[in-house]
Amino acid sequence: MVRTGLILGLLAVVLAWPVPMILVRARWTARGPALALVLWQAIALSGGMCMIGALLAFGLAPAGDDLPAAAASLLGSVSGGADPGLTLGVLPVFALCAAVLLGGHLLLTLGLTWRRIGQRRRAHRDALRLLSHPADRDGRLKDGRWGDGAERDSTIVVDHPTPLAYCLPGGTKSVTVLSDGLLQALAPAELDAVLAHERAHLTQHHHLLLLAFAAWRSSLPWLPTSRLALGAVTDLVEMLADDDALHTVDRPTLVRAIAIVGGASAGPRTGSRASTGTGDADGPEPAAVTPVDPVVRVDGVEADAMATPRRVTPARVTRLLRPQAPLGALPRVAVGLVALLLVLAPAALLV
């Protein structure tokens, strides 16, 4: 068990620093953003399991050679009235307590992040209800080019001159928010591109994925890779939304829409968070639009990644201007196997 703990500890260190640093610099991720997201999730999950598993292995080492046998032995001793401190020793008991505390901390932070972001989104939605009007009031959205009546009903417009578009997740209450400036700045096809992009964020449930990484960053803010992972995953979901929008419009139209919306809202704005347009899935909004700041902070860390101001990254623009072939079958299988092994390895080592 001590050897298992050392292996898990070493794997946790590797997954916490060099592996994410390599992945965040990898160029293949732009060719397979969905597969890269799977790998990021595997790294995060496996890293947490390795940290907790290493502590469990060190704590249960005196009781047995593997996790099931050691746990059964310890439970038998405790049920018989034995003192765990005498059965295991002071340091193993400390390791077990640390494992329980770490696991509880991760789960509690995830729950708090979910709750607080949900509260802010509800407040944001209430403010938008007062400061917006249905998209059907604007003739440009009545011709049905981009979706059915239900999608038009979930699209609202705010009176603001800056080209602004974002989606506010909320299950059946999800809305896509546009500004008057956006409707005036974009041609019909470009508007279709923006709407398709935002609709992809909602239909693919990107907010749930980013919430998990935001909770990871909030729970372990001292870990540099938690910040890197959140930024990388946010860029990848933007690429996925772009790919979905390309099923509706052509590539030049999407690039023009991104350039217009991103360029118009990239400048700093006093008292507000500047939106980069497409992809700001929780709506960093100008102060004139809504008084609610949708960014939730847990222990001083921004917890809602979808509300973090986004910029149009060079990688995102480059893959649109100079598209590359998708990953081949062999690299896809290899990355998938690596992700699977990362998830299974901690449990296999302990058992």
Automatic annotation (TrEMBL):
Entry note: cofactor: Binds 1 zinc ion per subunit.
TM spans (from-to): 6-24, 36-58, 93-114, 329-350
Pfam families: Peptidase_M48
Domain Peptidase M48: 156-214
Domain of life of the organism encoding this protein: Bacteria
Entry annotated with the keyword Zinc: yes
Keyword line: Hydrolase, Membrane, Metal-binding, Metalloprotease, Protease, Transmembrane, Transmembrane helix, Zinc
Homology family: Belongs to the peptidase M48 family.
Protein's UniProt name: Peptidase M48 domain-containing protein
Species of origin: Tersicoccus solisilvae
Lineage: Bacteria, Bacillati, Actinomycetota, Actinomycetes, Micrococcales
